[in-house]
Amino acid sequence: MSRIELFAPIVGPAGLVTDPAALPPYNTDWRGRFQGDAGLVIKPATTDEVAATLRICQEHRIAIVPQGGNTSQCGASVPRPGQGEIILNLSRMNKIIETDWDNDTLTCEAGAVLADVQNAARLGGHLFPLSIASEGSAEIGGVISTNAGGTAVLRYGNMRSLVLGLEVVLPDGRIWNGLQALRKDNTGYDLKQWFIGAEGTLGVITAAVLRLFPLPHARAVAWVALTTPAAAVTLLGHLRTRSGERVTGFELISRMSLQLVLHHIPGSRDPLNHEAPWYVLVEMDDTDPEADPQEVLSRSLNEALQSSLILDAAIAQSESQMNALWALREQISEAQRLEGISIKHDVSVPVSRIPDFIEEATARLETQFPGIRLVCFGHVGDGNLHYNLSKPGSQENAEFIRQTPAVNRIVHDTVDRLSGSISAEHGIGQLKVDELVRYKDPVALDMMKCLKQALDPLGLLNPGKVLRATTE
Ligand code: ZN
After folding, report:
1. Residue 346 burial (CB < 10 Å; 0-12/13-18/19+)?
2. Residue 211 CA, ligand 1 centroid: distance in Å
3. Share of the chain above pLDDT 90, in %
């Protein structure tokens, strides 16, 4: 029996993609670095169809790659070539199942697009706070499976803290209904956390209960110039002391990052008159429409200026100015792409160690790779930096990219020495499997393998992602 004949009775013709012309978007990863060769994509419409599909896979030993919006930064959501894997795409399961405003929760299927979830919450006067660059395509199942972060983690936490319940289909086809909408539940192991950040290696998430928050009604945004990352860490402490939970965004931006945006993105302009080595983009929000976060922000920044903690600051005076400041931050990745190939890292260290990390890693890189350009930006409040390197102006792309392992070694060794993590947001996928083996505590790695073995003994679910495939 062909594979199409195996799955057609479960999902019907609308649930199968086999046309070679339609397959490339499912087989190619977001950054264009990984290329799969699956000849079959299954698109179930219900949880029961997912369960029946996984039962067939188990019976016939077919490896399967769960996929949502396919926006992984690490090749987690595309198959590996030459392995006979198929894709299970959840995009048809995109319903908002239920909203419970008094409980401040929203329940949706795994294929719901993140931006649609944000909108559904907003229409009811509530906030779903997780915000990432790919929110127009990323789907909730994938956002949960990678434990996505973004620019509002400082105040609201990452995906791990925004999920109250999950429905998951296990590799053997059993359905776990864990869709509780509870904030307190002490009845043993917190099973949902096994699947959050597991990148689809332990089960297929089919639905989730998400936490909502009151919608902010007043905003203030400022662009601040400083001399060092250490000053940024001190400023964060100062602002939080002054305004508590109102600080929702605190993004560090190096001069080189801003320079690339000014150079490549039409219409962008420097918010300040003098150049500075480092900047911070701050946002404060308040749920009270009568509140004046701009006054709080301006007073706090004035104090920082008086004590020489900061060099200068520009406070947005209108909604469009706020958006223009945020655009400078959001366009860094695009500007860096236009500048040429880059080597990217998504690391975290304790907030207090950020200055040490930047100083140490940068000094070592500049010694070993003269002319290398640091494009460093990120979520200082979470200790998370996008520590990217652009090639020296004159160097060929291929020559620069050949140095990736040596660059990674310097960056990740520094992270490790400072008790940090080699992946703060993007996950492991295919990209960092070997780096994980190198840096993860061996006991932790062993527990991860035990969990994988217990739930997926045949190794059929997203093999070769996070952990090395058992067949390799
Ligand atoms: Zn980020």
Report:
1. buried
2. 21
3. 92
Please give the helix or strand (H or E) that residue 373 lies within, else none.
strand 373-379
CA distance 231 to 123: 39
**Ligand 1 centroid to residue 103 C-alpha, Å:** 29
CA 335 to ligand 1 center in whole angstroms:
15
Distance 114 CA to ligand 1 centre (A): 16
Q: What is the mean pLDDT of residues 68-73?
A: 94
* Residue 378 alpha carbon to ligand 1 centre in Å: 6
Assign domain 340-434 to a CATH class. Answer: alpha beta
Section 264-270 average pLDDT = 96
Query: How high is the pLDDT of residue 471?
Result: 58
Alpha helix segments (H runs only) across 97-223:
114-123, 140-145, 153-156, 159-162, 192-195
CATH class of 3-89: alpha beta
Asked, colleague to colleague, whether 218-333 and 340-434 share their fold, the answer is yes
| Nearest residue to 223 via CA among 153, 138, 314, 299 | 314
16 CA distance to ligand 1 middle (Å): 34
Residue 397 confidence class, pLDDT cut points 50, 70, 90: confident
Which amino acid would we find at residue 149?
G
Report in angstroms the alpha-carbon separations of 256 from 9, 29, 135, 166, 278.
Answer: 56, 28, 26, 42, 9
Cα of 280 from ligand 1 centre, angstroms: 15
SS3 218: strand
255 CA from centroid of ligand 1 (Å): 18
Does the domain at 218-333 match CATH 3.40.50.850? Answer given as: no
- Answer whether CATH 3.40.50.980 is correct for domain 96-214: no
- CA angle 25-150-340, nearest 5°? 60
